[in-house]
Amino acid sequence: MQISVIGSGYVGTTLAAVLADAGHDLVNVDLDEEIVSQINDGVAPIFEPGLDELVAEHAGTQLRATTDYDDIADTDVTFLALPTPTDDEGKIDLAAMRAGSRSVGEILAEKDGDHLVVVKSTVVPTTTEEVVVPAVEEASGKTAGEGFDVAMNPEFLREGTAVYDCQEPDKIVLGVQDGAAGERALDTLHEVYEPILADHDASVVETGLREAEMIKYANNAFLAAKISLINELGNICKEYGVDAYEVADAIGLDHRIGPHFLRSGVGWGGSCFPKDVAAIIHAAREKGYAPELLEAAVAVNERQPQRLLGLLDTHTDVAGKRVAVLGLAFKPGTDDIRESRAIPVIEGLIERGADVVGYDPVATENMREHFPDIEYADSAAAALEGAHAALVTTDWDEFEALDGEFDAMADPVVIDGRRVIERRDGLTYEGITW
Ligand code: UDX
Questions:
Q1: Which whole-number Å values give the CA distances from 344 to 95, 327, 338, 349, 420, in the listed order?
Q2: Using one digit for the tens of pLDDT, what is the confidence trace for 229-259?
Q3: CATH number of residue 387's parent domain
């Protein structure tokens, strides 16, 4: 199939590369010339395991990037994988979606024959019907269901395992309109995903447009709230001297709870959970509903880094002292620092007058843009040397192997927000919930 993907972010690039690898012909459209030439040179524009290999293999043959929207005219399907950030109040910003939809519409005005427009981005319920469809209709002069069809197909990929999640999804959610237009859209989407479904057994959920939009938010809100709940229970465990991980492992044996996503710690970050929980809270409030449980999930998440800092305060006054922050990425396997819990931790240390030295295997340059004035080390060992305390904010595997490196600390105090360091003799160790 001839497929176009608008947007070369995490979702767009991964989707384009995976669908090219599945045998389709892909055009990836982005306005950023640098990103476009990078993809055409066979280099992934983001750090994501396995993506470089796919882009290198298919660039120039089945995968082509361009800044020119005209190229979507020759494709059968266009996925909109544009950013949907939130403002300070949590309100979703649909400017990129509107502009992208209009640009697609302008091309469809000149095109004869069927075309399916698929919303991939995370958007609040009714956005496809009330924002995307009107923008495409206005620019194309055509009517949804007649001149073109529309679908909503959310993405559930995680950073760090994006390629795997895209190639081997748990589920594929296909939201379509009622009637013949919906049937046509489903047929096209089944053809798009046929090679992936042939190799891998995923559930396919066929549903409405706004249901598909809500499924994405419900999925992320549920997971974020699940972590906040285990963090809250972990905080109570800590007060009683109970090991929160033992408790989590035991409750996870109840199949209604499940063993996954029960790691208590310094909280959730990333580009999805904070943005999506904020957006659905804002959207609910606009409808007159107060989503108190989700607001509490956010409040617990904001409290966790402060609890980590509070534990540090019980051991030492860090004013004027060197303090190591181990892990800057919002989770291991990525260089993404968006909403990383290391950010409020570093802010708290700066407020306390500490000399902060950060270390991360891949995210240092991104954090340097955020905090240009703190020190950055080339290794965990270098960060620990001479430090009066170390705070662990990301569960990178390499931290588990640290051992003799603690001997070089001026004061061997470790406050662990991710349970990666083992308790050992000579180390003053505090876990955030254990
Ligand atoms: C998430 C969703 O998992 C994915 O389905 C969606 O499409 C995008 O958002 P991602 O943000 O890449 O993916 O990361 P994820 O692995 O889900 O972790 C999110 C945050 O939760 C991280 O900060 C992680 O450290 C934290 N987390 C996760 C915990 O604190 N405890 C856990 O048990 C699991």
A1: 29, 13, 12, 9, 20
A2: 999 999 999 999 999 999 999 999 999 999 9
A3: 3.40.50.720
